[in-house]
Specification:
Layout lengths: L4 E7 L6 H9 L6 E7 L6 H6 L6 E5 L6 H11 L4 E4 L5 E2 L3 H11 L4 E10 L7 E2 H4 L8 E3 L1 H6 L20 E3 H6 L12 H11 L4 E13 L1 H5 L3 H20 L6 H28 L3 H10 L2 H15 L1
Parallel strand pairs: 1-2, 1-4, 2-3, 6-10
Antiparallel strand pairs: 4-9, 5-10, 6-7, 6-9, 8-10
Helix pairs in contact: 10-11, 11-12
Length: 316
Amino acid sequence: MKPEVSVIIPAYNCEDYIAQALESVFAQTCCSFEIIVVDDASTDSTLEIIRSFNDTRLKVITNQHNCGVSSVRNYGIQKAQGDWIALLDSDDWYAPERLEHLLKIAVEQNADLVADDLFMIRDREQYPWSTLLQENKLPRDAIELVDAARFVATDRPSPINAPRNWSFGYTKPLIRREFLLKHNIKYDESIKVGEDFVLYLECLQRKGRFLLVPKPYYYYRTREVSLSTRKPTEYLAQSCEITQHFIDQEETLKDIDRQLLKVMYQNIDIFQKRLTYYRTVEYIKQKKVVLTLIQIIKCPYILIYFTNKLITFLEN
């Protein structure tokens, strides 16, 4: 029988977590589903743990070489048979009723993407410390229809010394597989940050209906190791490139979304200023005085950032 949902799980060296992820899918309260796990050339016992699950709904694909999460997800979607694609990272897990509730809403409201709030839970801890909507101080009492401009507006770096920003790009929606195929939307395998964000935005640019349910059914594990591995300059430089790509793309359309363009221009300005700040910090750490001075002369607002940081330090 054709499954309603295909759950795609990329797996790489996740022996401590993959069993919980799989168990949470098998514990779902309703709907027919398949699980497609793509092991991306793990070198630990991840593959052995996956294969220890004896269930015909589980399909295991193994890569001989590490290809990266975007390639893995694309391959999983290509092999999927379900009407809906559900995303799950190997170190996260679902609440038992997640697929039941989201699928019901998706069908009733004719959604192309339907996401829930996220429980944020630290590695090795038992209870969540917050949710995505709570961290962003957003309403949690009604389903929201998210358009492209609203979605992009959530993707802005936090002010210096402020708590981390959690954009809607962190959500893990159910996505109508037919919509992806119709518009030939795939994960961009050339980028290393914000892969989900880019895919969701492409769906929104093609007028996909994105619903955000204010209840959390997805447990998002926040691990310090994964958060600290990317340098701010690398992340921000790629964010600038991605935003500029979407600006160029939007400006070529006949039906231009002016509000979306406005938000994207605001974002790229913030990204560029923040990138300049962190590059200056790197030059200071490397004792490159001339390059530091050049950056400050070109971008005087950097002094404002440093002044605010100094004030914060003195106040503490």
